[in-house]
Amino acid sequence: MQSTISTDYLNKLGFEDGFSPTLAHLKTLLSLHVQAIPFGNFSSFLGREVSLASDQLAQKLLRNDQGGYCLEHSTLTRIALTELGYDAYNVLGRVYYQGAPVTTPVMSHLLTLVRIDQQLFLYDPGFGGMTPTSILSMNRIGEAQTTSLESFRFVEVAQSGLSGEVLTGMKYMLQVCIHNEWINVYAIDPEQQIAHADAQVANWFISTSSESLFTQHLMLSTANSEMRITLKDRVLRTHGKGGSNKKELTNFDEFERTIKTVFQMNICDGQLQAAWEKLVRTQ
């Protein structure tokens, strides 16, 4: 019998067919995940504890519809996928997206790798506004891999255009093709499997440090096969096959409506009000 977390995971994603740990079902799970469970950091933005305990993750992301950031998504998916019969494990990566670091970034991005028939696949629903909406093969280094929205590829870090001084311990760079240009996203070493304690240390830094984006900015995202929708602080953006739009939220009612209807998040009124007041005060 499946345990509660994997059962709740399938139910949350709306997976109705008989399940088996196949490559086809792994692809389906990720496609459903990015649509059903939003990325969000209300907890760290409001100075609240972010727990990686399995029962609390299941309650927050699967039952309460409150979303989470990468460490929550990927801890949950590693547990659920393992229960479902996959060979899944977590690694930590260094983020280079929308940045040009002069020193090595903190290993702060948690993701899940899944091994099927001697092939390794990236399963990462938790990178926010540029998370891959399909699984990606790590056996196709240098090859473009098409998803419903963008093309991604893995390259050796020596081909990333960055100095080795900012790539400590990394082996491969994930890149995304935007406007016909390959952009660095994050780097990993797939052989550096981490322990849960390692994720807890990264989670403590990300959720408490004044140097963390996740304590200073509110960041939400969701995606489907046609578009991505993101919110950074008060700026709502949509990017999709039909073009891009940008809108600034100007009042609390608009903010509340966006959280509840666009991102389908169930955040209590007190937290919504506190988040809006912080945005007005700091932005």
UniProtKB/TrEMBL annotation:
It comes from the Bacteria. GO terms for molecular function: acetyltransferase activity. Transmembrane segments: none annotated. Belongs to the arylamine N-acetyltransferase family. PANTHER family: ARYLAMINE N-ACETYLTRANSFERASE 4-RELATED, N-HYDROXYARYLAMINE O-ACETYLTRANSFERASE. This is Arylamine N-acetyltransferase. It comes from Acinetobacter vivianii.
